[in-house]
Design brief:
Layout (H helix, E strand, L loop, with lengths): L7 E2 L16 E3 L5 E2 L2 E2 L22 E2 L4 E2 L5 H5 L4 E5 L2 H15 L21 E4 L2 E5 L4 H17 L6 E10 L7 E8 L6 E6 L2 E6 L4 H9 L9 E8 L19 H14 L1 E5 L2 H10 L3 E11 L10 H26 L15 H13 L2
Parallel strand pairs: 2-13, 7-9, 7-10, 10-16, 11-14, 14-15
Antiparallel strand pairs: 1-3, 3-4, 5-6, 8-9, 10-15, 11-16, 12-13
Amino acid sequence: MAHLGGTANNSHSVAVQNQNNDKGSVREETAEEKVDGVDLTRYNDGSVKLRNPNIELMDQDILYHLALGSGSHDLQEMFGDVKFVCMGGTPKRMETFAHFIMDEIGYKLPAGTQLQDISAFSYRYSMYKVGPVLSISHGMGVPSVGILLHELIKLMYHAKVKDPIFVRIGTCGGIGVEGGTVVITEDAYDGLLRNSYELAILGKIVHRPAILDKRLVRELKSLASNDDPYETITGKTMCTYDFYEGQGRLDGAFCEFSETDKMAYLEKLRDFGVVNIEMECTIFAALTHYAGIKAAIVCVTLLDRLKGDQVMAPKEVMNEWQQRPQILVSRLIKKHLAQMGHLKSLASTPSSIKSPRRFKLVQQESEAHE
């Protein structure tokens, strides 16, 4: 099933297939934003609309991996001013980014207060809010990012956020690219070099196009400075489900291919235009695109995979490298906030708990799924 009905406009799609074979059917979806003139991903005021009618029928929606709920928290009061959602693998990296972006945009906390992990009671992800910027850890790999994106997109809906921009800030392995290089992803591919994200839904394989916002890619590239002591490039990114065998490493617990096989594969990737490998880009691109949310991926390479498998750079060097994509993303955020007239000190909001009883239930629900 490719269309919800009518004529699709403003759509990016891949060819539709319905194949009945021993492996079940395959469905490749379009991600059209409009059908018969009706916007599927936005309300008239620009706020996020969900492609799931069931949510509107629920008494409350518990985002238990975030320790938040639509009945327990005033999500619009807490998050309605969000413009940027930045995410990366580890809690420590995103806490560091939260403090960094707080200084960059001039956000001021009231005296005697400090940044708090909003999702601390989930014990899964860490989330910090710095004015119009959310900084969130997404864990490692496709499943972890997918869970987070479902709940973040629902959070945008409940908070009535208008036109948010999602950015993944991460690390990766380069293909013919030296360690410390900043890579802005143009297109996301899986391990079979398909520009889509594959998911089994109700026993059927679904492919959703993994598409990122091209204008955002060009804008980020334009913000790289000639004075930066490192290179910033754009290119294709490959996503794998594994750090070792899936990325052609020879140093995992298992390996059934040779150095020659590995190098032939990596050269094939380079010839195809792949400049880096990581473990999240396809689902990040696919779900944000399906939700109609502008998104970008900015990573730093930790090594050139054509020269080895293990990350050998000293810790202090890697720490500095990981700041590089954060600097580029901060330039994007400052530019947009300045254009909106929002680049100023902001006071933090008071407590946004609507129902203490439901708030406690949400905490208990999150803890129960530990």
